[in-house]
Structures are given as C-alpha cells and as structure tokens.
Amino acid sequence: MGPGYLTSPLVLIIGTLFDLYLFLVLARFLLQALRADFYNPVSQFIVRATTPPLKPLRRIIPGFGRQDIAALVLALLLLLVKYFLLMALGAGIIEVGNARVPIGQVGVLGLLLVAVADILATFINIFLFAIIVQVIMSWVNPGAYNPILGLINQIARPVMQPIQRWIPPIGGLDLSPLFATLGLMVAKMLVLPPILYLAMAL
User: Fold this and answer.
1) The domain containing residue 81 runs over which residues?
2) CA–CA separation, 74 and 65 (whole Å)
3) pLDDT for 167
4) Could you tell me the pTM of the whole model?
5) What share of the chain in percent tops pLDDT 70?
6) Looking at the 3D structure of the chain, how many domains does it have?
7) DSSP state string for 120-156
8) Which end of the chain is more exposed for a tag (fewer CB within 10 A), N or C?
9) What residues have CB less than 8 Å from 94, skipping those under 6 apart?
10) What is the pLDDT of residues 97-136, one digit of tens each?
11) Neighbouring residues of 127: CB distance < 8 A, sequence distance ≥ 6
12) Would the pLDDT of 2 be above 60?
C-alpha cells in the first residue's frame, strides 16, 4: 500500500464535511437575505447548526441591512482552513465550479480569491438544487405542500420569477426551470474562470 492509502480518504472526508457545512452557512445567508420563513423546521435546523461559530463573529462583524456579513466571513474562513488542511495532507489540486485549481501554487491573496469563487459556485449550486427539487416535486406530487418544499420555493423564487415574466407557460408546459438552469450554468462558466485566473496570477 502506497503513502496515499490513508491520505486520499482523509482528503475526501475533510473536503465533504467542509463543503456540507459551507452549504449550510451560505443557505442561512440566503434565507436571511430573502426573508425566508425562519420558523420552518429546515430553517430552524440550519440556524441551530450554524449559530455556534456565528455568535462570536457577530460581536465584531456587524450586519449590513438584511445581509449577514458574519456568515460570509465564516464561509471565507471555512474555505481557507479547508485549503490549508488539504495542502497539509498533500492535496495540491481542488475543484471549484468544475475547474481544477492547483492551490499549492497559489499565494494567500490568491487563496482568498479562490475562496470567493468557491462561495459564488456554492450559491449557484444552491439555486440549482432548489430548482431541480422544484421540478422533481412538480412531477412526483404536483400541488402538494410541505415545509421543505415551501423553503425551496422561497430560495428558487428570485431566479425563477424574472424568467417566468418573460417566458410564460407554453401549452401548459412551464419551460422556466430549463432556462433558469441553463442561465445558472452559463453564469458559472462565465463568472468563475476570470476570478480563478486572477487568483493564479497573484
């Protein structure tokens, strides 16, 4: 067995755990920004899971309007810790928005930009996830309501509503999820590469 026998599983575990928690932190940011229902059971879970590290941060980082700046700072810190842990384990390359980034060759300022790109990619993935779940539920159980679906609808609404104004249902078929998904994927392809290219140059 080679030296990577234990390292590869550790890299996978660390990357997965940090990505899952990052998802929760950024979901909380979105829920607050969108004024989602915080009494929803899913919202309550997200709040309880993310409050411990956010409490001390909020003492020194105030919010701005409806924006929870402390959550964004926490997301940046989580990603930087993740990158340094992965580099310590010998993982010199990570994936950010389907792009491979050699973090072992990037300086501290570059890592900050990589983290910004990672956060943007996670936001896009949250919207994509919400839209896909909406579509699946509309096929499986149309017209049904449950707390999880209500929260997902609130997250997807800012992306879906503008498209639905321009593209009404055609023959009873709503094509807006298709265009929303394509738009988000194109946004990921256009926005992230310049940030990552700049990060590599620093």
Assistant:
1) 4-201
2) 18
3) 81
4) 0.89
5) 94
6) 1
7) HHHHHHHHHHHHHHHHHHHHHSTT---HHHHHHHHHH
8) N
9) 15, 83, 86, 100, 101, 103, 114
10) 888 899 888 888 999 999 999 999 999 999 999 999 988 8
11) 155, 156, 159, 180, 184
12) no
